[in-house]
Task: inverse folding
């Protein structure tokens, strides 16, 4: 039988089997869980699969991501095939007093950018969340404020199947993207970051991975609570 | 708390929409209005206190050469929170973001003019119409029209789409629709037009064999009128 063709723009979203209660876990336990997630020892089931419309993705890239990258719709497929596109620094600098409005910083590659745009795409286009109920605060995190990457408001319970238990409509999300190797340290860091901010709420850790030599993106979603 | 957060989130998104098309005045007004809420000082104070505490703990972890720094910082932070509400602190970060945006926008409003980053560039002119406002980025033979609609975009039915295309001398292709967005494409022997609509935003990207600003304006105006027509089936997302 012929192998199914997986398009480069295909995204498979896996949900880690159960909601992880971070409040009761020690540092070592969180480390172990991160390692188990990385090695696939915790059951994860295919939650959703979709093909990305690159024109829509570019819209979310412009509005919600942190880096100064335009036209990922034109470069996404190359990038997904494993061609790592390096960016050239702009030839001009933004005037100091206006730099804040740009709110994006320059970076040498675009994996984080694609990860953030894909997260918003998944929430809005696939799960039906209102795009105006998503707020990206990572730029403030870089200024050392205590905040998750994204604040998500879900008054209409659009995420109920993903979370699978009653939840507060305000959720916090962290995104870790990788085109190389995802490490247990990054997963652990994401869990620790969520533990600091979730309080009595739920948190979502999105691991966006583009494995070299494989078509498509693999996303793992870990739902956590105190 | 959810209502306040929803309001601030909506304000931040409106500011970015207006920044996207360069309407600095409106962006500034939205920021000013959102910051007139009552509890701002308390929330900003919580954000600053949480920032100080986490920075202090990171330094302490470094000085003490703690092995598992991330975990130590998390546990110490949660133990020493005392009077700070985490939710207030995070809502406060949104307020800090809003205040910083307002300050930067204020500088632009007061200086009265937006200068392009490259001197040779002409600043784009904002055009305000009845149901939308837009700017054109001219890079012949390519043009990009960025529009902010007053209401969520409408999905044209096939008859309407065909009529608009005929009036413009273009052929439409199949409309692609998702939960929150839509793309339309038109072509002729001389032009290719791609329309991407996402909620209140529309981008029209045009490539012309014989570039004409007049033709570009006619095409974009017709398409934007169609997207903002009340009689079309509205895009049901709520």
Result:
């Amino acid at each position: 039988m012929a192998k199914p063709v997986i398009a480069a723009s295909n995204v498979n979203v896996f949900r880690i089997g159960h909601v992880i209660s971070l409040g009761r876990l020690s540092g070592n336990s969180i480390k172990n869980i991160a390692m188990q997630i990385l090695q696939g020892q915790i059951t994860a089931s295919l939650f959703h699969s979709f093909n990305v419309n690159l024109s829509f993705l570019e819209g979310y890239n412009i509005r919600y991501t942190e880096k100064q990258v335009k036209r990922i719709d034109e470069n996404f497929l190359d990038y997904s095939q494993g061609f790592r596109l390096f960016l050239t620094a702009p030839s001009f600098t933004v005037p100091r007093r206006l730099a804040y409005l740009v709110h994006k910083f320059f970076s040498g590659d675009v994996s984080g950018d694609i990860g953030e745009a894909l997260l918003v795409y998944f929430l809005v286009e696939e799960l039906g969340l209102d795009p105006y109920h998503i707020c990206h605060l990572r730029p403030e995190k870089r200024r050392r404020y205590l905040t998750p990457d994204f604040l998500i408001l879900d008054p209409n319970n659009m995420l109920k199947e993903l979370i699978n238990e009653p939840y507060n409509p305000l959720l916090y999300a962290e995104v870790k993207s990788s085109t190389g190797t995802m490490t247990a340290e990054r997963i652990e860091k994401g869990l620790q970051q969520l533990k600091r901010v979730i309080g009595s709420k739920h948190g979502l850790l999105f691991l966006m991975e583009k494995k070299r030599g494989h078509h498509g993106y693999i996303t793992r979603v870990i739902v956590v609570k105190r | 708390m959810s209502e306040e957060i929803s309001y601030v989130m909506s304000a931040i998104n409106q500011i970015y929409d207006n920044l996207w098309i360069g309407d600095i005045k409106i962006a500034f007004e939205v920021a000013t209005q959102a910051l007139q809420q009552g509890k701002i000082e308390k929330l900003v104070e919580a954000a600053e206190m949480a920032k100080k505490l986490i920075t202090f703990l990171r330094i302490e972890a470094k000085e003490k050469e703690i092995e598992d720094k991330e975990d130590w910082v998390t546990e110490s932070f949660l133990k020493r929170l005392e009077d700070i509400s985490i939710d207030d602190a995070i809502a406060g970060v949104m307020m800090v973001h809003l205040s910083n945006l307002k300050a930067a926008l204020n500088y632009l409003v007061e200086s009265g003019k937006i200068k392009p980053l490259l001197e040779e560039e002409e600043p784009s002119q904002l055009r305000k119409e009845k149901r939308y406002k837009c700017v054109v980025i001219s890079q012949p033979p390519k043009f990009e029209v960025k529009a902010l609609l007053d209401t969520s975009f409408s999905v044209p039915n096939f008859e309407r789409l065909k009529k608009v295309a005929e009036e413009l001398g273009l052929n439409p292709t199949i409309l692609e629709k998702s939960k929150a967005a839509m793309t339309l494409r038109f072509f002729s022997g001389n032009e290719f037009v791609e329309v991407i609509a996402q909620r209140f935003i529309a981008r029209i990207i045009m490539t012309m064999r014989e570039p004409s600003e007049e033709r570009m304006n006619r095409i974009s105006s017709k398409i934007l009128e169609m997207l903002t027509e009340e009689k079309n089936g509205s895009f049901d997302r709520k």
